[in-house]
Amino acid sequence: MSRQYYEFFCPVKVIAGKAALEHIPYELTSIGAKRPMIVTDKGVRAAGLLDPVIAACEDSGLEIVSIFDDVPPDSSISVVRTIAALYRKEKCDSIIAVGGGSAIDTGKAVNILVSEGGDDLAKYSGAGVIKKPLNPFFVVPTTAGTGSEVTSVAVITDEVKGVKLPFTSAFLLPNAAIIDPRMTITLPPHITAATAMDAMTHSVEAFTCMAKNPLSDAYATAAIKKVSQFLPKVMDNPKDVDGRLELAQASTMAGIAFSNSMVGLVHALGHATGAICHLPHGLCMSLYLPYVLEYNLETIRQPLGELLLYLDGPEVYSATPSSRRAEASIAALRKMRNALYQQCKLPRSLKESGKVTYDQLEAIAQMALDDGAIMFNPKEADLKDVRAVLENAWAG
């Protein structure tokens, strides 16, 4: 892609900080929304994470009209239809999605149906199908990894046809993303680690893939620096509120970066592995990142070398010869993964995951080749190349 032309787009208002939730009622009422519905999952509700959201609204005299708390990890068309029917029955006028990627994607899909009308979600699948603004939509992420709060994409499973339907439109973007450290303070160590590595991968691929641009670079490098600095601190002290906020902000920055510069082979492999082996997305990102960087190395030597400054700091960067900085960046990421393995047994190879068998590698390779993300990988890859990366990721 030519560096002489690029587009950068992020119209989402970000409200971040230790009292961010208390701003939700103002944001709703300022656009005339009075009957919000919360879309979430049972884990979020059981962890008590809805309580401060509900309290913030009630303290301002705003009633949460309906709560749907049964979003599954892999959301489907039938779930979206069920929620849309409840929204209409209760005469809601806005949605607050509270959760991780699945709850947020579900909220986006529900908003399509309740704004456009009807129950045929599939007809809105694809890019550019939605032609007008949707109803008020707000997002409160409870993990610091997906960046879904600032992306214009949603993926919902058609359980009848057995396929994942992608939805892409600027109108899917929320009116505001509310980033509050209270939402991630209870995340267990392995999810904290996996989601942070998801944000790290978003940033590294954003900085090294074909559609990178100066603005996405700024967000990507800032996110890499935050994850590098604060993930070890949060792993050592999970109740570190400042560290939690920094990781949440890093996730949002990474989301802005990759939604403008796209991602590559790590994501193509991750999507395929998730579909075939049902491995969590963040774990897939952590597993594949160093092996894909090694495959891309000679094509991305210069930008990957630049990342050493953000991964390991100015002292290590200045002490490392420029010709070795790309390799040192990969080494820094491996060191980070090794530390996470020691702290919470986050797998470093497909074999260590215990959920992928060797005979599944061929199917993963075939599916990855058909994934849209591979188009933006800086180095072309055929089946043999992808299989070789998988062999390395299998052995570790």
Could you give a quick summary of the protein structure above?
It is built from 15 helices and 9 strands. It has helices at residues 24-30, 42-46, 50-59, 77-89, 101-116, 189-208, 214-236, 241-261, 265-277, 281-306, 308-319, 325-344, 350-353, 361-369, 383-395, and strands at residues 13-16, 36-39, 66-68, 94-99, 126-127, 137-141, 153-158, 163-168, 176-179.
Q: Please provide the ordered H/E string of secondary-structure elements.
A: EHEHHEHEHEEEEEHHHHHHHHHH
Approximate shape:
globular
Q: What ranges have pLDDT less than 50 throughout 5 or more consecutive residues?
A: none
Q: Whole-number radius of gyration?
A: 20 Å
CATH superfamily name of the largest domain? Dehydroquinate synthase-like - alpha domain
Domain Alcohol dehydrogenase iron-type/glycerol dehydrogenase GldA: 11-181
Organism: Marinobacter psychrophilus
Domain Fe-containing alcohol dehydrogenase-like C-terminal: 192-394
Family: Belongs to the iron-containing alcohol dehydrogenase family.
Based on the model shown, name its key terms:
Dehydroquinate synthase-like, alpha domain, Rossmann fold, 9 strands, three-stranded mixed beta sheet, 15 helices, 2 domains, six-stranded parallel beta sheet, 396 residues, alpha/beta
